Amino acid sequence: MQYSYESLARALSAAGIEEAREEAALLLEHFAGATRVALMTERSRLYEDEALEAAVEKRMDRYPLQYILGQWDFFGLPFFVSEACLIPRPDTECLVEEAIRCLPRGAKFADLCTGSGCIAVAILHARPDLTAVALELYPETLDMAVKNAAYNGVADRFVPIRADLLDGGTEALSSFAPFDAILSNPPYIPAKVVLTLSPEVRREPVAALDGGEDGLLFYRAILKDYGKLLKPDGQMLLEIGYDQGEALRALSAAYMPASVCRILRDLGGNDRVVHMTHLSL
Q1: 110 pairs with which residues across the strands?
Q2: CB-hemisphere CA count at 13 Å for 105?
Q3: CA distance 20 to 113
Q4: What's the pLDDT score for residue 279?
Q5: Alpha helical stretches, state H, 4-155
Q6: Most buried among 1, 93, 181, 214, by the most CB within 10 A?
Q7: Closest by alpha carbon to 108, among 231, 274, 277?
Q8: Pairing of strands 47-48, 2-3
Q9: What is the pTM of this model?
């Protein structure tokens, strides 16, 4: 089947895809070798390619564009992505920016539930003085993180550890402790809400989304069990849902009372990162 930029954009829009024009351009660039200039100046030019046709069919079935392309940018860097990992999102850049700003020189940090490795890799790329220990439960996902660390030139400062955050993770990390900081973008969507998400998000790994009945399962485990791995003045930076700020304040007071807790907002004005400075153990 042949597609022009305009006809493909219309087809994607009819399938319910909001950013249809941008996605049409990305698909034609990736699978047909079109340039952005050509797409803007020759909008009726026809493109035909079997891989393009297959990709369009998948996207119209609401399969995530990022998985179709196999790569996605985060914090200005390219990351390989697949069904094995959560797709990196701009919201998470808030956590990365804060970590780059506040981590002390020469710091060592742990990245829990590293997924694609986007958080740790982006921070290491921006801060050549830092090292990261990245914990992930699933082997295929951890392999993806290792691949992304190598692709972005930080593999020598990226230590992958396979372990379950909820069962044995602290033991797996203990030989690397104490840490200057512990970072995480854990699953934080309440289980019943996962079922209501967009068709694309429901194609992402449920284990990377489902935060238990109230969305706070992983936060309780991190605050309860992982604070002991921090230096006396260590920090925790955790991505949170837009409506979870006050809940995290309460958990911080319960599990890390000797800490200062700040809630940072993203560019949309939503609560996005909880930053705790652990004053004493």
Answers
A1: 133, 182
A2: 0
A3: 32
A4: 61
A5: 5-14, 20-32, 36-41, 50-60, 65-69, 93-102, 118-126, 139-151
A6: 181
A7: 231
A8: antiparallel
A9: 0.95
